[in-house]
Write a structure and sequence with these properties.
With 203 residues, the protein is mainly α. It has helices at residues 30-51, 59-82, 99-113, 129-154, 161-181, 195-199, and strands at 16-18, 24-26, 123-124, 189-190.
Amino acid sequence: MVRISKVYTKIGDGGTTQLGDGATVAKSSLRVTAYGEVDEVNACIGRVIATIGGSAGDPWVTIRRELLLIQNELFDVGADLCVPIAEGEKPAQRLRISLKQSAQLEALIDRCNEPLAALSSFVLPGGSALAAELHVARTVCRRAERSVAALLQAEPDKTNPDAMVYLNRLSDLLFVLARVANENGATDVLWRPGAARDTGNPA
């Protein structure tokens, strides 16, 4: 159980912070960057949830519930990354994200993607306000994924690779949901290569 009694501690005023295992590292470290960017993804999804309206029976009510579960899982990802894997660590000894959560995202992706028409071009971020928020969340999630990839390269024995898999699937889900938010892709804004340059009008 987490208990927070004081918001500020002044521990990090010198540019360092403590990991979940008590180790002191620079705030600029790859590990802190990775779980910090996971926190950014979570905040972006919070904005998405705040944008979702709808009443009982609206499919977005179900999606909103799924996104709230994902926010909890992102805290699990952050907790995982915050504690380096120790030598001899036993299964379930620490909170670690697993491929089971990624498989659940895949099932949700398939379900949401089923009614969407196949794409013949890349999609520009935008369309409805909700779709735009989802695209922002998607790009931040991709950035977090790249940071975890860098951490895995630097500390492969101390980092859970399933965290990167989860972020990869989540970014895919956010892309699909952005299309759902654009009337199941009907109002997607498609990339037209060279069109703005040819006409002088990006619209």
